[in-house]
Amino acid sequence: MPGILLGDEFPNFEADTTVGKIKFHDFLGGSWGILFSHPRDFTPVCTTELACAAKLTDEFKKRGVKMIALSIDSVEDHKAWSKDVMSVSSAADNDLPFPIIADDKRELSVKLGMLDPDERDKDGMPLTARCVFVIGPDKRLKLSILYPATTGRNFDELLRVIDSLQLTAQKKVATPVDWKPGDKVMVIPSLSEAEAASLFPNGVTTKEVPSGKKYLRYTQP
User: What is the pLDDT of residue 148?
Assistant: First the structure.
């Protein structure tokens, strides 16, 4: 699993990127952030992922989320690869709309626990796994997902998860299975019925279950 746990402050690392040197917390400012790592430049799955991310830039911006990628090659390689990425995203005349971190010494990948022991390059060095980190405005890790190098990510799911994280950060609710924005949410168990009635003017409905326990409480946020 990644070397940083949910709720931990995300490291304020310095790194060279395709837009120059950054200090991560300064890059984020007061925004949410998403960092997604890639095993290598000029590889097929990574290229499709970055092309998809580029197409969805406006969706991330709408949610106040700053995007940044990481791969274990140099800034020069990243810049050349970005042209392929934008061609695949059908926007060849545009620049990649987010930076890519150059982690050619694998220092950050080691620090964050992102190396995949089963996938290695031609020199036998481990590649980075497909990690996703979502960081809140408080600079703390809100979500991490770790995919093997051979499995591409679903960026629609990442947007759905961010919607859930942002909603549940503001309201005392949880999102059930397959939840999408606009669906009903669940009242968290720690709220009493009186507190729930006060907090949710749209009303609370309780689903009956054989145990008789009233823990399946739904509301419209």
Answer: 83
Q: What is the pLDDT of residues 88-146, one digit of tens each?
A: 999 989 999 999 999 988 888 888 888 766 666 666 666 666 889 999 999 999 999 98
Selected catalytic residue, list 41, 46, 73, 77? 46
- Can you tell me the distance from the alpha carbon of 76 to that of 91, in angstroms, rounded to the nearest whole number? 20
Strand partners for 132: 36, 145
What integer is the mean pLDDT of 155-170? 97
Long-range contacts (CB closer than 8 Å, 24 or more residues apart) made by 211-219: 215/189, 216/186, 217/186, 217/187, 218/184, 218/185, 218/186, 218/187, 219/173, 219/184, 219/185, 219/186, 219/187
CA distance 215 to 16: 49
Residue 204 · residue 196 · CB < 8 Å: yes
* 46 annotated active-site: yes
Given the residues 95, 121, 138, 156, select the one marked as catalytic.
Answer: 138
* 52 is annotated as an active-site residue: no
What is the chain's length?
A: 221
